[in-house]
Amino acid sequence: MNELFVILVSTALVNNFVLVQFLGLCPFMGVSNKLESAMGMSLATTFVLTLASAASFVVYHGLLVPLDVTYLRTISFIVVIAAVVQFTDIMVRQLSPLLHRVLGIFLPLITTNCAVLGVALLSLNRELDFLSTTLYGLGAAVGFSLVLVLFAAMRERLAAADVPSPFKGAAIAMITASLMSLAFMGFSGLVQG
Amino acid sequence: MSDAFSMVGLLSAVGVLTALGVGFGALLGAVNERFKGDDSSLVEQIDALLPQTQCGQCGYPGCRPYAEAINQGDALNKCPPGGESTITALADLLGRAPEPLDGEATDEALVAFIREDECIGCTKCIQACPVDAIIGAAKQMHTVIEDECTGCDLCLDPCPVDCIDMLPRRTPLEQWQPVTRPPLVIASDRHPKETPHGSHI
User: Fold this and answer.
1) Are B91 and B46 in contact (CB under 8 A)?
2) How distant is the Cα of A48 from the closest Cα of chain B, in angstroms?
3) pLDDT of residue A79
4) Residues of chain B contacting residue A101, judged by C-beta atoms under 8 Å apart
5) ipTM attached to this prediction
6) In chain A, which ranges are continuous DSSP H helix?
7) What confidence tens digit (pLDDT) does each residue in B62-92 have?
8) Which residues are registered as beta bridge partners of B111?
């Protein structure tokens, strides 16, 4: 039980996928202009990440290992992720057409969010069991959501702030992201592993 | 070369990928069939915000077609009967920026006014009024209920004697609003003119 909690905290904060491992930067910069769409994106990505890491585990250990084709893991995981994203797309369109409209192209683009594939592959390297893998995905998703929402809130304030003209737009966003990344390094001693 | 190549390995690789593709494809097809996605619920929500006067001033034959057009990306500001509050509500719903009302510069809300001594009691304006704001009967003088009138001016055209004017709406005393300024959230929200060192924003 304690070990599972450590996995959750270490993936969400210590080894945060966005700010420490630098995966999934595309939606991090792309969907953080508005807090509302950032929240929607976080929810969708959380759903996809958790489901995709569980499904990848099942496909890897149920299909690829018995047939001795583990070298196909990358392409198989991409197929799994694409299917989960498509499933999420259908569900979001059904449950909240408005959120579907706000997220727009970013919803299908979760497929190419390298954090999703990264979680599936990295959890294989760590040789986790099924529950740990799912929690690893959930922890990564919680970390992603946390920094995305924090960053979107900051960018909303930045949009209204009096930024010197050389730093306007993407420049100040990059600087803010790097400062956040520095801040997250403060978590590094929190959990070993 | 020959020992690296194995027919079984090739077949299982192709088989696994085919099975994954077909399996997930079938699953998604079933889910899509089960939850048939329709865009209509958002149209319903937009339609509920429109005033349902069916006046056609937006250029569409009614409120429902205009709701569908908004859903397809049309501008929010084409509904004079709804006015500023409808535009704000639509902008809130759709997460878009509210725009000022389209059309000629009608800063103030208008209301129809029938010059009663010229009215011949033809009832044509009554039939044209989308909100039933005109009362009267055949060969009797008609008049407009000011609170009900949306200022859509659909009654002007049918009137055979042109006895209807569009007048600026009087604001009742109980709707009077004091002029307030929004609170300043952060210092840079200030208007450029008010910055101490001149306008540099």
Assistant:
1) no
2) 15
3) 92
4) 42, 94-95
5) 0.72
6) 2-9, 25-30, 35-59, 73-95, 97-103, 114-125, 130-160, 170-184
7) 888 888 888 888 888 888 878 788 888 888 8
8) B167
